[in-house]
Amino acid sequence: MDPDAKNYWRNKFQKVDADIFKIIENGIIVAASDRPKEFRARRDQIAELLFTWRPEKIGEKEVDIKFSVDGSNGETDGAGISKESKVSTIINDRDKTNHSKVSLYSFDEARALTEEIEKEDKLYQDVMKIKRTLSNSQEEPAEILLELLRRLQTMAIPVQTLKVTNIGQTVDHLRKHESRKICQLARTLVHGWMNTMDDWHNSMTAVEQRSYNYLNPYAMCEEGLPIPPLDEGAFFATPACAIEMSYVYLFYPSF
């Protein structure tokens, strides 16, 4: 972007009483909502810009200042070319080469990220479409419901999608369906998702515990023996009949 265009947009943003990053975030949301087709077509370009943009450097002027401090300003070689110019050219050429490598690598990253986002978006849309049909289970034939449940069984639905779509609560209602096959399949799906939630919750707890241990090393008593930190969880130990966290996360995603 040339300086005039950059200054034009800088003045535009400065006139808006909002943080520039909020402008970017909400601009993406509005563009995706109001012009979805064009946004989808230009999404790769936007992602590439996010990954490949680097702040502009001063360039040769910065190198000249550096060499003048070293006391070699104005020296020339036999061909009459200043040492500053030769070094600046070498640095600029090397910077262009490195920038092209970074751009190529970053472009691959951006494309991979875009493909992953599209994959997750498609999975979300598919789950929501199935959920809308299952929500009207009383008006749908058993064959359709059974087919949709089987489709859900083939999907590797991540925890975040389970929480956002709240598909677990919809499928759980089908455990009381008059069809035995639908009841069994709904029960299998819910139990599988609860196991997924359990694994996710356990992994998050393990990460938090490691962080706690790192930030709170054992205290040392006067004799020099290690004293373990106070186990705060002991005061809140849950009984065996307590509700599993997987149930809470699956059926109360906003918890």
UniProtKB/TrEMBL annotation:
<dbReference type="InterPro" id="IPR035441">
    <property type="entry name" value="TFIIS/LEDGF_dom_sf"/>
</dbReference>
<keyword id="KW-0539">Nucleus</keyword>
<feature type="domain" description="TFIIS N-terminal">
    <location>
        <begin position="125"/>
        <end position="200"/>
    </location>
</feature>
<dbReference type="InterPro" id="IPR017923">
    <property type="entry name" value="TFIIS_N"/>
</dbReference>
<protein>
    <recommendedName>
        <fullName>TFIIS N-terminal domain-containing protein</fullName>
    </recommendedName>
</protein>
<dbReference type="InterPro" id="IPR003617">
    <property type="entry name" value="TFIIS/CRSP70_N_sub"/>
</dbReference>
<dbReference type="GO" id="GO:0005634">
    <property type="term" value="C:nucleus"/>
</dbReference>
<dbReference type="Pfam" id="PF08711">
    <property type="entry name" value="Med26"/>
</dbReference>
